[in-house]
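quick one before i forget lol
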Amino acid sequence: MNIKNRNTISRFPDRARDFLKKRKALAAWGVRLGTTLVVAGLFFSVFRYGIHLKEQGFTTYFNTALQKLAKLDFSFVSNYAKGSLAQLDEVAIDIKFRHLLRLQYLREQSLREGLILPEFKNEEFPARLTHNGKTIDVKVALTGLVAHSHLRNPSKWSFEVKVRGDETFMGMKSFAMLLPSTRGYLTDWLGFELMKEKGLMGLRADFVNVSINGQSRGIFYMEERFDKYLVENNRLREGIIFKIEEGVEPYGESKLMESPATREQLLLIKRMYQQVMAGELPPGKFFDLRKMAQVFVVCDLMKNKHPLAGQNLRYYFNPVTGLAEPIAREWEELHDHDMEDRPLFLEEPRPATRHFRFERRPFIRLVYDNLEFKRCYIQEAADASRVQFLDRLLLRNEDKLNALMKKVYRSWPFYGDPTWYLYDNQRYMRSVLFPEKEQLGAFFSRREGQTLRIFLQNQQDMPLQADYLSWRDSVRFYPAEPVALDSRAKVPGARDFSFRIPAGFEWNDDMAGELRAHYNLLGLEPGGRLVEVQPRPAEVSSIQAGHEARAENKAGAVSLEAW
């Protein structure tokens, strides 16, 4: 009889434990390997996504996405859901393959040059555009200036569309299909709404889903171009649209010269501009200074002066007023720019900035140096700096803004609400216009006949008006002539002004210690602010003061530091 070895049976639990230990070790190694593969996969996915973002033009906004993730802000998830529900117009464009190849060639040439040169944009190709079941004949061409911004994505480029024949598309005859990032997604749309709020001309804009030859190319920003349909949509009479670079450069000049009526008007525009530049015609007789001030204020509220560049700023010659009105666009991204870009246009520009360059353009300088322009600018800036101004605009456009935001989320769910930056820029505008510190320095000089001579000094960059002096809040001394004080950057010293002593009032110099100067920003309510009139420094004799006053009348300023 064979008896089973008990030892053999008793070793089974040990073998089982050994086996389990080996399984645990294998599982641990499996977890490590799996984790490594997942991390590697995520790394290469993020790397590839970064390439995709660069191609799509999202790199400007990528930092925003990283900041949100770092703050564990997952709002992009709900934004993505909202974007999936967005209602987008579908636009199909069909173009012959050989024409598409030619466009591809022009794109490559532009990328080599760095710029989309006029000869590349002038080549137009026939195509057919279909929308809501209706097909129209169009011409397409490359558009934009900086090739990297508009053409870097190999499958999605900015292009211009012109409708042929008598047809229009959404009421437009000519428009651009742009990469949304080239207009900061909603930046330009907000800029146009601000322009309209100020009574200026604004372009139509929207987001559409585009396919070319049956292949989806994604969401494009559609922006109206400059023609009579733009003028009609803004309820204005047909007039010539032009830009100013080397001189007056109108749209469709050859056609304008064919008609006697438009030819005469175009020649008038060119002649008036030449007279302004020659100093023979005041700028206010050619430019609508109120509207010029409004567009400069909008640019400051958007914290971007790029629209003031010659290639961007357009003008509409209003045949009713006989004045040129500005049309602005291209405010780029609405986000935290460097502080050097923040100063308002009337503030002293910082070197090597757009502000610095634009202010020195000859025709901009003519407008900038005009006192009436500055008065209009301050009035418009004071209005735009009120919180109610933005509240009213955004409330009226709330539904439209929400609908556009959903369309943007469809393309870029990390996009943040841009209106926050407008309120931030508005706060800065208020801080410049209405600082807590005193803006005016006033110094008693002497009595001269029936007038008091007072030195006044602007202590900041916004121009001021001195409205009157008061003594014990009961007697007022009005200036012999209106007093306007330009920026401290333009007139760093103090200027000597005369204020009339009221008839029958007995004045002696001991009363000077109770004088107050009432002033305000140029163009605002008279006497809105006040400052104590300081005594004249003792070391300056009346003879010296009189001499300096006469010199000031000739040279324009007297430095207080010389006292």
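fyi The first helix runs from residue 6 to 10.
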